[in-house]
Design goal:
Layout (H helix, E strand, L loop, with lengths): L3 E2 L2 H23 L4 E7 L3 H16 L3 E7 L5 H13 L5 E4 L9 H6 L12 H8 L8 H13 L7 E5 L6 H10 L3 E5 L6 H6 L3 E4 L17 E4 L3 E4 L5 E4 L4 H4 L5 E2 L7 H19 L4
Parallel strand pairs: 1-11, 2-3, 2-4, 5-6, 5-7, 7-8, 8-11
Antiparallel strand pairs: 9-10
Helix pairs in contact: 1-10, 2-10, 6-7, 6-10
């Protein structure tokens, strides 16, 4: 039987609707309109598109958007000064520094200078720690979105065998922390894992976050498993054009899986929606609102 397709576009729209409702109720109860500041250094074309989309969606849900576009030759010191200004600005509840930064700027130093309570990317070591010890915190957006998609199919993840392929700080590790918080039995597989197909075959929930086009094959999937494909890979397509594919060989795996996310249209749209959700959470945390 063909797998159920998990529609990330539609589910992201639901998340944005909820964010818009939360913004309205914060305005009514506390006179508070959450604000998101995005810092872009340089002219990277993909980053410019991301930042434009983030700003447009921020405004669409009724929040304030503050864009800071700096030239590529901006010094590290000037970026750090801007972050300090945003840390102190009461109208700014969330701060996102778009990566990659130009090579002369130490990205880790910049990210670590963001006030953890405004760190809507959830990359600050304080927030990483809070996530792993189970405190209320700001969680990285892509894993949060992936977990929302998984819960649409398996609302109660307790005891589910989850395998995550990939151990990056941005996706794999926070995904593991989130699924552990949901009481899954979590395995993190990576480039050194022995017999990866066999490990994956044990998964009721398989999350692929590798960055290798269509690596996960049909015979890696346990029949009926839920497959969340985080990978975004650009590969040659037809007529000299390129196309996007995930880390999962979608067509063949969809014949075995119970449910699967497509690429594009799966995890991708969830990331900005969860960024908006994090901005509301950050505002609530800053004002001590449950
Ligand atoms: P990364 O390169 O930082 O990490 C990749 C991980 O995969 C590593 O931990 C590595 O151990 C593992 N790996 C590499 N080769 C492997 C192999 N042959 N077998 C098993 N494991 C292997 O990448 P990332 O930042 O975690 O991103 C992963 C993918 O997710 C990329 O395709 C990226 O574009 C995509 N991504 C999508 C979104 C989104 O949807 N918005 C956000 C972030 C990343």
């Amino acid at each position: 039987m063909a797998a159920q397709i998990i529609d990330g576009k539609a589910i992201a729209a639901e998340v944005r609707q909820q964010v818009a409702a939360d913004v309205k109720s914060l305005q009514a109860s506390h006179g508070l309109t959450p604000g998101l500041a995005v810092v872009l250094v340089g002219e990277d074309p993909a980053s410019k598109v991301y930042v434009k989309n983030k700003a447009a969606q921020t405004v669409e849900v009724g929040m304030q958007s503050f864009e800071h576009k700096l030239p590529a030759d901006t010094s590290e010191e000037d970026v750090l000064v801007l972050v300090q200004t945003l840390n102190a600005d009461k109208n700014v509840n969330g701060i996102l520094v778009q990566l990659p930064l130009p090579k002369h700027i130490n990205a880790e130093k910049v990210l670590n200078s963001i006030d953890p309570n405004k760190d809507v990317d959830g990359f600050h070591p304080t927030n990483v720690g809070r996530l792993w010890i189970g405190e209320r915190t700001l969680v990285p957006c892509t894993p949060t979105g992936s977990a929302i998609l998984a819960k649409k199919i398996i609302p109660n993840l307790k005891g589910v065998n989850a395998v995550i392929i990939g151990r990056s700080n941005i996706v794999g590790k926070p995904m593991a922390a989130l699924l552990l918080r949901e009481s899954c039995t979590v395995t993190i597989a990576h480039s050194q894992t022995k017999d990866l197909p066999a490990v994956c075959r044990g998964a009721d929930l398989l999350v692929a976050a590798v960055g290798r086009p269509e690596m996960v094959k049909r015979d890696w999937i346990k029949p009926g498993a839920v497959v969340i494909d985080v990978g975004i890979n650009r590969v040659p397509g037809e007529n000299g054009k390129t196309k996007l594919v995930g880390d999962v060989a979608y067509a063949e795996c969809a014949e075995v899986a119970g449910a699967i996310t497509p690429v594009p249209g799966g995890v991708g749209p969830m990331t900005i929606a969860c960024l908006l959700q994090n901005t509301v959470t950050a505002a609530k945390m800053q004002y001590g609102i449950e």
